[in-house]
Amino acid sequence: MNKPDAPPNAQGAPIDWAAFRAEIDGIRIYDDPKLVEARSRDYFWYSPILDAQLDGVRGDLVVMPRDQDEVRRVAAAVAHHRVPLTLRGGGTGNYGQCVPLEGGVVMDLTKLERVIEIADGRVHCEAGIRISRLDDAARETGQELLMYPSTRQMATIGGFLAGGSGGIGSLRHGMLRDPGNITYCKVVTVEPEPQVIELHGDEIQKVQHAYGTNGIVTELELALTPATDWIHCAALFDGYDTALRFAQSAQEDGLDCYLLTTVERRFAPYYKKFGDLFPADRDAVFAMVAPAEMERFTAKAQGMGGRISFAMTKPEIREAGLQPAYECGWNHTTLQALKADKGWTYLQVAYPQPFDPALVMRQMERYGDEIFWHHEMARMGGNIQIFALPLVRWRGRVEMYRLIGELEREDGCTIYDPHAITIEDGGMKEIDTGQIDFKKKADPYGLMNPGKTRGWTADMAKTD
Predict the structure, then answer these.
(1) In the chain, what percentage of residues exceed pLDDT 90?
(2) Fewest CB atoms within 10 Å of the CB: 3, 36, 241, 284?
(3) Residues 336, 342, 348, 352: is their CA dihedral positive or negative?
């Protein structure tokens, strides 16, 4: 991996940066070392392994195109000079997806932020738009996004496509890659004369969760659903097993919720804003509930010995100085804990189906204070799928992979490893040949985000 000194190009020759700059004259270029370093990072520091591996790794230049014509000019210049290219949105990923392992150009796409069209049941937009702005625009038409990450405020929709898999809303609408959630992508190729490739339907899997390794996504079309003024609330229980059974039952009974996340009581000190609304002697279920379902939600909680701690609209939550419920689950739990205690890291766990809360209780007993647990109710492929993003006390790399092996071998869980930088090692577990075949068309010189997929080897790169 290259540090701040300029790397050679893909052929091993020095990059003529003056000629490169001249070729994209008029496009914003930033070379201030601090800014370049900032734009070369994401939230990989959640992982001590990645924090050590990626420390000091950065690009040479940041470019910020203002429109798709400028994107094509950058793509042409990158191909002409054989410069490594790494795409960047909000930089809220956790696995070093936007860290340029071989230096080169970091292209910030956040100025590609147009909402092109909102129609009944769909929105067509540019890839660099912030998810919060896109969802707000949809809500002005009485619609909303199907899902978004807990980093809704900062993440871009293109970054979510390239590095995400699900999040808030996955309880209701499945995972990002489930059919119908994303219906169209426009991709610009990295060639001396860039081409535009349009992907529809299942073809989108060629670029979804590909870490920006195989083409520059400039536009997307996503499905929308009628908007709901969700009630942000929490139910408290005396026992994590009861909290899990409540959330599981609420999902199985079809309560209309956008979020159901269980958070055990040991997290309470990290949720400082909530005070007595999330006390240290109770386990919580944070939820976003349809207003018409609050009576049924409350009755179910009370019937299982719980109580509603708070129930507010989003404006009321903000007025009270509290976090919205979507910032109380998924990987925001890790962020809140790390702000208070740097000794934590985390894992991403998928549980075997059907979900059995008793397995979680055995895990809690087995690992004690070494792991704090929280779980997400979701759907995947049409089926209920429960995930966990537990806090794990950092005891070194060897112990981390011993734990991963134990959870998979003994408990039948699947671990999406957040301590790895490649697509395959992080989650997919195998090389997606469809994505690699598409890379040969969209990035024939192998310049995009090098080092992030094991499926691409140097001999695949075009040499003419």
Answers:
(1) 95
(2) 3
(3) negative
Count Cβ atoms within 10 A of the Cβ of residue 62 and give its class: 0-12 exposed, 13-18 middle, 19 or more buried.
buried
Spatial contact of 399 and 266, defined as CB atoms under 8 Å apart: no
d(CA 410, CA 423): 25
Q: What are the tokens at 387?
A: 């995930």
Nearest to 395 by CA among 333, 344, 338: 344
Rama region for 100: left / alpha / beta (φ>0; ψ in -120 to 50; rest):
beta
C-alpha torsion 227→244→384→138, nearest 10: 10
The model's pLDDT over 224-269, given as tens digits with 9 standing for 90+, comes to 999 999 999 999 999 999 999 999 999 999 999 999 999 999 999 9
Among 66, 68, 64, residue whose Cα is nearest residue 31: 64
Q: What are 339-355's pLDDT values in tens digits?
A: 999 999 999 999 999 99
pLDDT digits (tens, 9 = 90+) for 379-395: 999 999 999 999 999 99
Q: How many CA atoms lie within 13 A of 398 on its CB side?
A: 0
The widest CA-to-CA distance across the chain, in whole angstroms, is: 71
| CA distance between the termini of the chain | 25
Q: For tokens 């009581």, what's the residue? A: 265
CB 222 within 8 A of CB 123: yes
Burial of 445 (0-12, 13-18, 19+ CB in 10 A): buried
Q: Side chain identity at 126, as an amino acid letter?
A: E
Secondary structure, 3-state, the chain: CCCCCCCECCCCCECCHHHHHHHCCCCEEECCHHHHHHHCCCCHHHCHHHHHHHCCCCCCEEEECCCHHHHHHHHHHHHHHCCCEEEECCCCCCCCCCCCCCCCEEEECCCCCCEEEEECCEEEEECCCEHHHHHHHHHCCCEEECCECCCCCCCEHHHHHHHCCCCECHHHHCCCCCCCCEEEEEEECCCCCCCEEEEEHHHHHHCCCCCCCCCEEEEEEEEEEECCCCEEEEEEECCHHHHHHHHHHHHHCCCCEEEEEEECHHHHHHCHHHHHHCCCCCEEEEEEECHHHHHHHHHHHHHCCCEEEEEECHHHHHHCCCCCHHHCCCCHHHHHHHHHCCCEEECCEECCCCCCHHHHHHHHHHHHHHEECEEEEEEECCEEEEEECCEEECCCHHHHHHHHHHHHHHHCCEECCCCCCCHHHHHHCCCCHHHHHHHHHHCCCCCECCCCCCCCCHHHCCCC
Q: How many CB atoms lie within 10 A of CB 190?
A: 26
Instruction: Assess contact for 28 and 110: CB atoms under 8 A.
Output: no
